[in-house]
Specification:
The protein has about 180 residues and is α+β, with helices and mostly antiparallel strands. Helices cover about 20% and strands about 40% of the residues. The protein has helices at about 1-15, 125-130, 155-165, and strands spanning about 20, 40-45, 55-65, 65-70, 75-85, 90-95, 105-110, 115-120, 140-145, 150, 170-175. The longest helix has 14 residues, at about 1-15.
């Protein structure tokens, strides 16, 4: 799991992600569509949105006060975050390593019964997708800083995530066990 998580996260960290400097989802505005203690099998998906054939990893989601905690794999890497409903069965996810005091990554999750699909945001891919569709980063309220796509407000995050949902395949599937 560590190796696969490292393989997945390394390109994101090197390539840049959709980020914000501060929290753009407040606990008072958050939604909690995942029950405390839910266990998932996480399947990586290829660029078409199909399972890669790799064995799934275990992810456990719990609640600690207002925040979700997501524990991944055998090493128990811990992420902390919030979710916000942005459309029918679509949720913006704001997360960071639990011990990080600030700075957030964003992704989109789509619920389908007890399963979820994730759209991760890799900044260079997002920039290319925006350009290919005749848009600009300014249309989304996004700027590139240090290879990250930086959003200043939640409306910008929402526009970017919904655009990604419309124009790219998901990169992971979470199946409740």
């Amino acid at each position: 799991m560590i190796r696969r998580l490292a393989v997945f996260l390394a390109p994101l960290l090197l390539a840049g992600c959709l980020v914000s400097d501060g929290d753009l989802i407040a606990p008072s505005d958050a939604d909690y569509p995942i029950a405390d203690g839910t266990r998932f099998a996480e399947y990586p998906l290829d660029e078409t949105g199909a399972r890669t054939g790799d064995a799934p990893e275990t992810v456990i989601v719990t609640r600690d006060g207002a925040r979700y905690l997501m524990r991944t794999g055998e090493d128990g890497k811990l992420f902390s975050g919030l979710m916000k409903d942005i459309g029918p069965e679509l949720f913006a996810v704001m997360l960071r390593e639990d011990d990080a005091p600030e700075g957030n990554l964003y992704a989109l999750m789509k619920r389908d019964g007890t399963s979820w699909k994730r759209w991760g945001m890799v900044c260079p891919d997002f920039v290319a997708m925006v350009d290919e569709n005749g848009k600009t980063l300014a249309d989304f309220g996004i700027e590139v800083r240090n290879s990250d796509c930086v959003a200043q407000d939640f409306a910008s995050v929402t526009r970017a995530l919904l655009f990604a949902h419309e124009h790219q395949a998901p990169d992971a599937e979470y199946v409740a066990e």
